[in-house]
Design goal:
Blueprint: H1 4-23, E1 32-35, H2 41-51, E2 57-60, H3 64-72, E3 77-79, E4 89-94, H4 100-106, E5 109-117, H5 135-139, E6 144-147, H6 153-165, E7 172-176, H7 180-188, E8 195-199
Parallel strand pairs: 1-2, 1-4, 2-3, 4-5, 5-6, 7-8
Helix pairs in contact: 1-2, 1-6
Amino acid sequence: MFSDSEAAPLLCSGAVGYRSLRLTNIKNGHNLGLTGFGASAHIVIKMAGHKYPNSKVFVFARSEKERNFAVELGAVWAGDTEEESPEKLDCIIDTTLVWKPIVEALKNLKSGGRLVINAIRKEEMDKEYLLQLDYPTHLWLEKEIKSVANVVRRDVTDFLKLAAEIPIKPEVQEFTLEEANKALVELKERKIRGAKVLRIN
């Protein structure tokens, strides 16, 4: 059983993360990358560890706290967004709102690798970073980019069964509705460990 606070991120970022992981076409033993390590990625790493025990997970995140958290949850390596992973990756899931991690992730893919973008939207602030795309470095050798549009009922049903089986207990920080602005400020300041949940009484 999940508490209300635990169920909230499972039904949102967890289900999106599940669909993203499915869309990577990952096989056991493949190297998986996660760029950004917030609400969705901290659940994905738990799923990946359970479903693909021989796969290694590499995490890219701006915040040192997020990188340390990723290692705590089983990442074999965690580096900054611009760093090159020590091994090329079969698939990467981007969970960020900006463009830079997409460009940087593509250089870490193996030939034929797939980048799955699970953000609902992308901000405009760094869109010009796309101009740094270099065809031979980032796109050549049949690399793929796939986006996640929406989850479907099957994703939620299958994911909740898996979450109960593992079990996945998401890390949550609860805020009252009156503290909503505080939660938003913390998100902006990258003070994230797991998911933030608003409790409305």
